Amino acid sequence: MLGPGEPPPFVCLNPEGRAPFLLACDHAARRVPAALGRLGLDDAAFELHIAYDIGAEGVARRLSARLDATALLAGYSRLVIDLNRGLDQSTLMPEISDGVDIPGNRGLDEAARTARIEALYQPWHQAVAAELRRLDRQSGAKAALIGVHSFTPEMDGRVRPWQVGVLWDDPCELARPLMAALAGQGLTVGDNEPYSAREPSGGTLESHALEVGRPGLSVEIRQDLIADDAGQAEWADRLTTVLGTLLCPT
Question: Is 42 exposed, middle or buried (0-12, 13-18, 19+ CB in 10 A)?
C-alpha cells in the first residue's frame, strides 16, 4: 500500500514527552498513498473537511510543544480509511462523504480493504495503545487520552453555534472543569456537541479510553477559527492554559 519513499502511517511528536497524557489527531492529514491515485478525486476535494480536520494538526503540534506532550498525528486522509471509526462501520472507507462521491472507495473487495487496514489503521491503533502504556509506566497512573479535532461551522443546513465542543462520557473528571474553564473565557462551549462520545463509534477515544476505564475526551474546535496559523496559535494558547492547569498541576 505504501510505496518506497512515502511517509509512514503516522507521526509521533515529542516521543519522550513528560506530560501525563497523549494527544491524538487522527484526522490530521489529507495525503493519499500513490497506489490509490487520489481516489479518483480532484485536488479541490482535498481542501475540504471531508479529507481532513482543517486546522487540527497545527493546534496539536503547538500543544505538543507547549505542554511537553507526546502527540500522534495521522499521516493519511480519512477518505482512505477513517482511523476514528470501528472496523464494521460503513464510514470506515466512505463511498460518499458530505455529498461528495469517492470513486476510489466504490466496490472495494476484501483484499483492498484489508490492505488499507493493515497499512494504516492497525499501525495507528497499535501506536496509540503503546504510547498510552508508556505514559502509564512513566507517570505511575493511567494517562489521559486527548483527541484533537475540528468541525464545520454548518452541516446539513444546520448552523453550529459552538466555538468549541468537548466530547466525553462518565466517568471523566476532566470534562466538566475543562468546559467550565473554556466557558469562563467567554466561549460558547458544546457539551457533547456537535458530536457525542456517548454514541459509541469504535473510534480512537472510545476504543482506547472510554471503553477501558481510561480518562479521556476529545476537543472539537470550529474550523473557521483555526483555518490559519494565527487562529491555530490562538487556540493552542487557550488550550495550553486550561489543559496545563487540569492535567499538569505543579
Answer: exposed
Q: Lowest mean pLDDT: which of 146-155, 199-208, 209-218? A: 199-208
Cα gap 27→9, rounded to integer Å: 12
CA 10 – CA 33 distance, rounded (Å): 13
Domains of the chain by residue range: 10-247
pLDDT band at 198 (very low <50, low <70, confident <90, very high): confident
CA 149 to chain CA centroid, Å, is: 5
Question: Nearest 5°: phi and psi at 167?
Answer: -100, 125
- What residue type is 126 in one-letter code? Q
Architecture of domain 10-247: 3-Layer(aba) Sandwich (3.40)
Q: Strand 70-74 to strand 21-25: parallel, antiparallel, or no bridges (unpaired)?
A: parallel
Phi-psi region of 76 (alpha: psi -120 to 50; beta: other; left: phi over 0): beta
Strands (E) in 49-205, as ranges, are: 70-74, 96-97, 100-101, 144-151, 154-155, 158-159, 164-167, 189-191
C-alpha 75/C-alpha 23 separation (Å) is 15
Helix, strand, coil % over all residues of the chain, rounded to 5: 40, 20, 45
Residue pLDDT, tens place only, 50-79: 999 999 999 999 999 999 999 999 999 999
CA dist., res. 13 & res. 244, Å (int): 18
Q: Taking 90 as the threshold, does the pLDDT of residue 194 lie above it?
A: yes
CB count within 10 Å of CB 144 equals 24
